[in-house]
Amino acid sequence: MNKKRKLYIGFMRGAMIVCTAITAALVLFLMGYVLINGIPNISWELLSTKPSYLTERIGILPDILNTVYIVLATLVIVLPLGVGAAIYLTEYAKNKKLVAMIEYAAETLSGIPSIIYGLVGMLLFSNNFGTSLLAGALTLVIMNLPTVMRTTQESLKTVPQSYREGAFGLGAGKWRVIRTVVLPGCVDGVITGCILSVGRILGESAALLFTAGFAHALNGIFTGLTSPGATLTVALYVYAKEEGEFGIAFAIAAILMILTLLINLSATLVGKYFAKRRNV
Amino acid sequence: MKRNRLFENIVHGIFLILGLITVGCVLLITVYLIISGIPAIKEIGLFNFLFGKEWASTAAEPKYGILPFILTSVYGTAGAILIGVPIGFFAAVYLSKVANKKVRAVIEAAVNLLAGIPSVVYGLVGMLVLVPVIREIFNVPDGASLFAAIIVLAIMILPNIIKVSITALDAVPKEYEDASLALGATPTETFFKVSVPAAKSGIAAAVVLGVGRAIGEAMAVMMVAGNVANMPSLFESVRFLTTAVASEMAYSSPGSLQRNALFSIALVLFLFIMLINATLNFFLKRDKEK
């Protein structure tokens, strides 16, 4: 083997290992840094109170609740829409051009940056019924529609054609087949879509800044949805950038980090669970 | 029987509407952006708007030139690609071809975590770690700069690049590699001279996806780039297209030329993204046809 060839091989091998190590080190550093700086700042008081100027106390309970509300509201709306769209594509659509158009639209939606969603959400929703969690949730619905649609579609494709034919053969109508055979078959796709969407909603900030606002009021779910409110990410941004409260910001960052870990973990577990069930 | 037919048709109709919602959303977004973006461009003049070097929206004699934002976005994205793509590319080849199952599973989980971290968390760490470090090392008055934004963006696009490249590399038929090995190439040579060229459409798609993410990122960049509307320079405080929109939206009054100009910036950003999407589709389609 000549020298040049050896050098090439050595360089490429080295580059591969170094780059993989950089990636791994980055993740470790980010995790470590955020958790070490954040966890000591998490206290029961922080988690269970709302901010008060009188006692100079900062609490993030309103932000936690706002996040929960917005996740619930978004999922309630996006699930039927996304699953319905996926069912249309796999069960009904015969026109190839139409399918291509819908899929292209979904791809376009998933490529649009969140700041643009924020602007359009502001024009479409906030300007019509006020800056509110609901306006934020509706914006997030558009953002997450392609995700739910795609995961559902993937799992629908794995429902064997023979099941459908069997049901048709027994005299079932199309809707009955969908309700009794197709829908139960796409549960895993719907759950995966849910998990991915929750992850995206938790991490979203740019789209919510102008649609859901940044209030820290403590509300029940129905008042909460119709009034402005900051989610955890938006609160992090405000505390870090506008108010210089880095301790609080790190506490929120640590919470978000742990939630991200849990979401990734559950996505993997769900995937494995359903893969196993399929193979049986 | 007739009622049954009617019922089925209604159900079909409902699903058709649900299917068309995505198309409707895209149309709605496009139309809204164009309608709200055009007035300011008309008032300022397309040329002055796109190629004006000065942005001073709150000055007594306001100027609305967005060339600094366009160039910053382009440079910032290019920088992030320049750093992020090689790292992601080599890591992807390692994970797809060399790493054993366990290593791959662990690092892939780590990469997924990297993808899931909210952008404000990147911004926070960038603000408190990267910015001071840049100030110290390069001896500049403020570390919040284009360079800081480039590093943060490079890290943020890394997971996309790695994941999409891995998918492409995994799909290379084993026969190609076996043939190359049988002809006497070493494994490393085979990976880079056979597998990588075979997966080049997918890897190109990964790069384009990275471009899209980098150009569209707002919050993390807002926290580390300093946010002054300068012409781009590596250690200068800069504003991206995204952050230009985000930073003034809160205090611009509705209906004013300033706010309309922000919508025009969003329209420009949107056009960039559509162009990138079209490129992405081109690569993905080419991959499928093969």
Task: Kindly describe this structure.
The complex is a heterodimer of chains A (280) and B (290). Chain A is an all-alpha fold and 280 residues long. Chain A has helices spanning 3-38, 44-48, 61-92, 96-111, 114-129, 133-157, 161-169, 174-185, 187-203, 206-209, 221-226, 232-242, 246-279. The radius of gyration of chain A is 23 Å and the shape is globular. Chain B starts with a helix and ends with a helix. In chain B, strand 1 and strand 2 form a beta hairpin. The longest helix of chain B is centred in the first third of the chain and has 43 residues, at 2-44. Chain B folds into two domains: 2-51; 66-289, MetI-like (MetI-like fold, Orthogonal Bundle). In chain B, 79% of the residues lie in helices and 1% in strands. Chain B has a two-stranded antiparallel sheet. The chains are: A mainly alpha (280), B mainly alpha (290). Chains A and B meet through helix 1, helix 3, helix 4, helix 5 and helix 6 of A and helix 1, helix 3, helix 4, helix 5 and helix 6 of B.
CATH topology of the largest domain in chain A: MetI-like fold
Major sheet: arrangement of strands of chain B: 1-2
Total count of strands of chain A: 0
Biggest sheet layout of chain B: 2 strands, antiparallel
Which stretches of chain A of 5+ consecutive residues score pLDDT under 50? none
Q: Compute the CA-based radius of gyration of chain B.
A: 23 Å
Helix content of chain A: over 70%
Q: What string gives the helices and strands of chain A in order?
A: HHHHHHHHHHHHH
- Largest interface, C-beta closer than 8 angstroms, per-chain residues: A-B, 87 and 84 residues
* Percent in strands of chain B: under 5%
Q: What's the number of helices of chain B?
A: 12
